[in-house]
Amino acid sequence: MSQTVAYFLTWTTYGTWLPGDARGWVQHGEGSADRAYRQRDPHLEALARRRMPKEPVLLNARFRRVVEQAVRDTCRVKHWTLHVLNVRSNHVHVVLTVPDRPPERIMASLKAWASRRLNEAADRNERRQWWTRHGSTRYLKSRASLERAVEYVRNQQRTTAACLRARLAYKRPSRARLAASAKLAANASERSFLPLERPRGDQIQPPDRHVAQ
User: Fold this and answer.
1) Any idea of the CA torsion for 116, 94, 132, 197, to the nearest 10 degrees?
2) Positive or negative, the Cα torsion across 76, 208, 18, 168?
3) DSSP state of 91
4) Which of 85, 111, 146, 166 sees the fewest Cβ atoms within 10 Å?
5) CB within 8 A of 114, min separation 6: which ones?
């Protein structure tokens, strides 16, 4: 098995990737690479949003700077090699090299430190759950795949936050129309909303068509 050169990590802010999302999603336990992502279901997405105990999180410019500094400080203190970082209004991309540590632990550490810094910077009534559970972890197996990932993160297509806010304001359908999707949503875990990726060698694709500011 070829050695991993780097990891490409992506995680989203709370409530911005729900079951039924048009970008694709998976049910908990369906994260295998050979299983197709579930398709858009606006009624299911609206039901999931209705059941959310808190409001979705979009990072403003000040909070994005806080997250960026937290990630950079964590990498510096832990002697992790940070190749590129992009903090957007509703997600974070990080490409880094960390020997002998699984990407899930790396991402959990970065999210935890970013949350701590965000809570320190926020007013008392702004403190919240900032992130969805888990995220996307990709293994980069060659210098070429690393370069492609870095290029993507630096130059990814950017869409205004107004598009995301419009999606979050989607009008909820009637109770009768929501009922058909209720059973599926009841067992859905937010952890599974972001399509999960298994290692795919050098086949680096744009990670997940995030809506970015």
Assistant:
1) -150
2) positive
3) E
4) 166
5) 66, 67, 70, 71, 92, 130, 131
What tens digit of pLDDT does each residue of 3-58 get? Answer: 899 999 999 998 887 777 777 665 555 444 444 566 677 777 777 777 777 888 99
- Cα 26 from Cα 11, distance rounded (Å): 15
Q: Could you tell me if 103 and 137 are in contact, meaning their C-beta atoms sit under 8 angstroms apart?
A: yes
pLDDT at 66: 97
Biggest CA pair distance of the chain = 54
The structural domains of the chain, with segments of one domain joined by +, span: 6-192
Instruction: In whole angstroms, give the CA distance from residue 164 to residue 63.
Output: 17
Is residue 19 within 8 A of residue 40, CB to CB? The reply is: no
Amino acid in position 127: R
Fold of 6-192: Alpha-Beta Plaits (3.30.70)
pLDDT tens sequence across 69-97: 999 999 999 999 999 999 999 999 999 99
